[in-house]
Amino acid sequence: MRFPTAALSWRALFAGAALSALLLAAIPAPAGAAAVSVDAATSADAAVSVDEGAAVTSITFPLGLPITEMVDSWGFPRSGGRRHVGTDIMAPQMTPVYAAVDGEVSRAHGEECPVEGPCDSYTLAIAGDDGRGYFYVHLNNDTPGRPDGCDGRGGLRHAYAPALLRHRALEGTFEGARVEAGDLIGWTGSSGNASCGQDHIHFEIWSTPSWGSMTNLNPYPELARALAPDEVEVVAVRSR
Fold this sequence. Notes:
Blueprint: H1 10-13, H2 15-24, E1 69-70, E2 87-90, E3 96-98, E4 103-107, E5 123-128, E6 133-137, H3 162-171, E7 178-179, E8 184-187, E9 200-206, E10 216-217, H4 220-227
Antiparallel strand pairs: 1-2, 2-9, 3-8, 4-5, 4-7, 5-6, 6-9, 9-10
């Protein structure tokens, strides 16, 4: 089991977060961001129904450190009338991505792509042993370092972890692969509908592990606690 380790003091990194909270706490969330219907099978940024009474639980932070930005953009408007139903964790290309909880892979978009070849988008969904679902979007699809720009030719081996690739080689799919919290599952990138080079992982938490219609939960409070458990005030920060 592999856990990410901090490369710097997170109290120092978030020293400005408390001030930002004071300056930004008065900014209201967008109208309608709290509760609308969802069909997550259609988009990672579908409309969302949120359980405001959901308890904040403990997860492993899903990216290696340091990251470059993480803000609470829950419910913010997106094109086509959608709303943002996750948290974008900005980090350099090829930053390791980790399982947030124990569970097994339930779906992986892009697994049908060649191991060494082009692919537009890589995602991964994990059915957690805790009864929830965890969705990772924008795994890397480019050649590391991007010598030829966003070429989409990074292949499976630069999107998913070796352990998952071994499972795929044996079973023909990533589905069913067991992971433990902190296990390496892939690498950060800008595949899918992310802008070229705007490397990040769009991270979602679902109230059930099943793919399809479900209630999305705002992952930001749990991510903030996993990242800086002594800096609970960062949960209040809103921006953009």
